[in-house]
Amino acid sequence: KIDCEGSEYSIIRSLSSAILYATQKIVIECHNPSINESWTSQSIIDKLHQHGFTCGITPSGGNSIICAWRS
């Protein structure tokens, strides 16, 4: 579970392929990106899809919850 008050974008962006392929499930609370942040919730979903995850997204009080898993 990742709930790091806005740092989730840089954390996911920095994860290596080895770490992502070794991970089975991820739940991320995505806060609205800062004005200097180029990543979005869709950017996170795209990276997770590239590493074999199925993703679902649910709105949550102005933020989003991304659930990602391997089939």
What's a concise summary of this model?
With 71 residues, the protein is an alpha+beta fold. The chain contains 3 helices and 3 strands, in the order ααβαββ.
Which descriptors apply to this entry?
three-stranded antiparallel beta sheet; 3 helices; 71 residues; 28% strand; alpha+beta; 3 strands; globular
Written overview of the protein:
The chain has 71 residues and is α+β, with helices and mostly antiparallel strands. The protein contains three helices and three strands, in the order ααβαββ. It has helices spanning 8-14, 17-22, 41-50, and strands at 25-30, 54-60, 63-69. A three-stranded antiparallel beta sheet has the order 1-3-2, covered by helices on one side. Strand 2 and strand 3 (63-69) form a beta hairpin. The protein starts with 7 loop residues before the first helix and ends with a strand. The model has no long low-confidence stretch (mean pLDDT 87).
Instruction: Tell me the helix content.
Output: 25-40%
Reported for the largest beta sheet, the result is: 3 strands, antiparallel
Secondary-structure element sequence?
HHEHEE
Strand content: 25-35%
Mean pLDDT: 87
Determine the oligomeric state from the structure. Answer: single chain
What structural class should be given to the helix and strand makeup?
A: alpha+beta
Which strand order spans the largest sheet, edge to edge or round the barrel?
1-3-2
Large-scale geometry: globular
Radius of gyration: 11 Å
- End-to-end separation: 18 Å
Low-pLDDT residue intervals, each spanning 5 or more residues: none
Could you give the count of β-strands?
A: 3
Total helical elements: 3
